[in-house]
Structure formats: structure tokens, C-alpha cells
Amino acid sequence: MKKLCILTFIFIINSVCILRAQWSTNGPSGSNVQCLALSGTNIFAGTNGGGIYLSTNNGTGWAAVNSGLTNLRIYSLAATGTNLLAGSYGGGVYLSTDSGTSWSTVNSGLTNLNVMCFAITGTNIFAGTSGGGVFLSTNYGASWTAVNTGLQNFYIWSLAVIGTNIFAGAGGSVYLSTDNGTSWTAVNSGLTDLSVFSFAVIGTNIFAGTNQGGVYLSTNNGTSWTEVNSGLTNYTVYSLAASGTNLFAGTNAAGVFLSTNNGASWAAVNSGLTNLYVLSLAKNGTNIFAGTWGGGIFRRSLSEMVTAIEDNKNNLPSNYALQQNYPNPFNPSTKIKYQLPNACYVTLKAYDVMGREIETLVNEQKPAGYYEVNFNGANIASGIYVYRITAGSFVKSAKMIFLK
Questions:
Q1: pLDDT score at 370
Q2: Architecture of the domain delimited by 316-402
Q3: Minimal CA–CA distance to 200: which of 165, 159, 253?
Q4: Are 78 and 93 in contact (CB under 8 A)?
Q5: Domain residue spans of the chain
Q6: What was the pLDDT predicted at 82?
Q7: 264: nearest Cα among 214, 203, 189, 211
Q8: Closest Cα partner for 135 from 119, 121, 153, 152?
Q9: Measuring CA to CA, which residue among 283, 319, 271, 279 is closest to residue 295?
Q10: DSSP letter, residue 305
């Protein structure tokens, strides 16, 4: 078949390749696509005001599937087995057992009906609400119980699961539960009071997309977080999606970015994307879908984007470097950039002028790339401080000034 195409349809093949080398759209026109979900070969899209749309042909066409929905502001979707859950803003949770053909309300025990996100682990379904915290259902939504012990913020924008750990992204905080939601503990070291709109998991790494703070990475179940924003030109990240070791970020007004190295560096992948306000992302087979604000749904081939990024690896730094922090002087925080031409173990620490360690900013193996970390001086006195990097045999120090 391939030989036949090459021999007789060269022009057509070249035209198709040109078209696929960018984002294309066939989604519901004009819709604000808040969420995307996969159920088998079906793709579902939740919109703010238009209800739910279904595509059975990989996004080529979409049809509204709203029978039984009394609230069309759909902010979250989740598939579990043959069941599909939809979270609405103001109408609670809806359940479909027939691929979206019909929906029924399942709100027993749900005292807050603004459902922003779901997470599923085994037979447990968690729902994050705007103002009511987290609710748990163990019977596919037939009944719900509030599980909020330890939560200090009840506006839950995102949920994620790693093994037996459940993460909740809230306004200004991340919370962790290790006991199926019975209790929660804040895990915010390094996050600097940022609202977390989205999560993505790659292996044991968890990424958090934040409001005006870009993307943060934790490699230790949320014990600490590191900013990973090099190349990410917009710092509000509404959506994240993982495909193997590749990570996609949907931003406010800057489109979609791709990282192939666990967030160490990012590149925009926006060719053909005519709406750059990306609210939701989802991978389906060999494609990734982007739901936008007012522009419907876009589709693009994964391999085409990843190949393009891999071809640009010659843009990695050719030498080690530690840059002057900015701003300097600063109050209360400043950013420190450094670069690595090779993978190595990196430590970056801050000291006072007497040589006493103030804070360890980096202490881990890093791939080659460009990096940026944040240092917050809220708990130190005004004065001159020193930061020092050790990366393999490369060692360098620089001074910074904190003025309250």
C-alpha cells in the first residue's frame, strides 16, 4: 500500500503531510472547552454553556450529547469502566452509563454543586469543588461524603493520583492525602503561595500548572517543589497532559508548550493554533487535543511535534553558567538562572556573608538544559547574600542583595 501511494499519489501525500504538520480544528465552533476525557475510542468535551460533545472518529466530527443534563456548564469529565462522570458548575455531578446518550443526576450527599475536577483510584472517585473541598464516592457517584480534614482551602481546582497518594490543587496550596482522603496535609515547600490549576504525572514525577507561576515539579511526593519554566513564555498554565516522557502545557494566551526532558526546557508548538487560550489537553492514540476558550477543539499529531523538538536539541547550552539573579536588589523574591551542557548532579545553595547556609535550592541529578529557580527572602534579614552552584566540576558563586 505504501509503495502504491508513493508511485501514484505523491502530490496528495505531500499535501496531507503539510496539513498535518500543524494544529487543525473540527471542534464545536465558538465553545469554551473546559475539559476533555477519553472513554475507549470516544472523546468527550465539556463546555461552559454548551454541555457535552462526543466524537467517535478521533475528533473529525462532534455531536452534542446532552439528554438529561439540566446544567450545561461542564467543567470536569472522568471515565471509569463503562461509566462517565460529568461535573458541572452549579448542577453537581451527572452520570452516563451509555456513552453519553443519556445522563442522570448523582448528587446525594454533595453539598457543593460546583464540581471542578475528578480523580479516580480503584473504586474510589474524588470530586474537587469550588468552595466545598473534596468529596468521595465509592459507588460510582450514587452517594458522596465530604473528606476535608486538614484542608485549609476549600477551592479545589485539580486532583491527581500517584500510587496511594492523592494530590489536591487549591487556591494557593497543594494538599496530599495518603489515606484515601481521610486526612490532608499541605505540601507547599517551594510553591510560594500559588494556585494550582492542573496536574500531570510521569512515573514518580508530579507536575503542577499554576496561576502566574508556570510549572513546578516534585520528585518526592510533594515534599518539595522546583520551578521548571525555562522557555515557557506564559506563566499561567491551565492544563497539562503527559504522553510517555513528553509533557504538554496549555497556557493563557500563549498556546501549547512541549517539554521532552521533564520540564527542564520548553518550546512552543503552536503552528496552526489560531486560539492560544488553551483550557484543556488530552492525548488520544497518536494525537493530542487542545480545548480552547471560544475557539473549539484543535488536534495535532504527537510524533510531528516531538520530532521537531528533538531536532532542536542542538540548542542545548555549550557550557556551564550561573547568571546574576534578577531582580537584584530584591524583595521578597528573586530568580536565579543556570545552564548545564551535560547531565550532572547539581547543588545550588544560598549563604549569608559569614558562610552559613540559608537554603538549599537544588540538590539532585539534572539533565542538560536551561534552568531557573526562585529564592524567597521573606524570612531573612536585609543584607548581602551569596549563592553557589556545584555542577560536576563546575563551581561558581555570586552575590545578591536583599532589601526590605
A1: 83
A2: Sandwich (2.60)
A3: 159
A4: no
A5: 26-313, 316-402
A6: 82
A7: 214
A8: 119
A9: 279
A10: H
d(CA 392, CA 204): 25
Cell of 125: 472517585
Quickly count: other Cβ atoms within 10 Å of residue 69's Cβ.
22
Collapse the DSSP code of 312 into the 3-class scheme (helix H, G, I; strand E, B; otherwise coil) and give the result: coil
**Gyration radius (Cα) of the chain, Å:** 23
Q: Indicate the length of the chain as a whole number.
A: 404
The mean pLDDT value for 72-90 works out to 94
pLDDT in tens, 299-337: 999 888 877 655 555 567 888 999 999 999 999 999 999
Pairwise CA distance, residues 303 & 280, whole Å: 20
Q: How far apart are CA 167 and CA 186, in angstroms?
A: 10
* Mean predicted confidence (pLDDT) in 54-64: 92
CA 185 to the chain's CA centroid: 21
> What are residue 53's phi and psi, to 5 degrees?
-115, 150
Q: Is the pTM of this model over 0.85?
A: no
- What top-level class would CATH report for the domain 26-313? mainly beta
C-beta pairs of 95-99 under 8 Å, 24+ apart in sequence: 95/140, 95/141, 96/65, 96/68, 99/39, 99/42, 99/54
Beta strand segments in 89-155, E: 92-96, 104-105, 115-121, 124-129, 133-137, 145-146
Of all residues in the chain, what percent carry a pLDDT higher than 90?
68
- Spatial contact of 169 and 156, defined as CB atoms under 8 Å apart: yes
Cell numbers describing residue 261: 526532558
Report the pLDDT averaged over residues 76-91: 93
Residue 364, burial from CB neighbour count under 10 angstroms (0-12, 13-18, 19+): exposed
Report whether the peptide linkage leading into residue 327 is cis, meaning its omega lies within 30 degrees of zero: yes
Q: Which three cell numbers stand for residue 397?
A: 558563586
325 φ, ψ (degrees, to nearest 5): -60, 155
Between CA 375 and CA 365 the distance in angstroms is 20
Q: How far is residue 69's CA from residue 256's CA, in Å, rounded to a whole number?
A: 31
Amino acid sitting at position 52: I
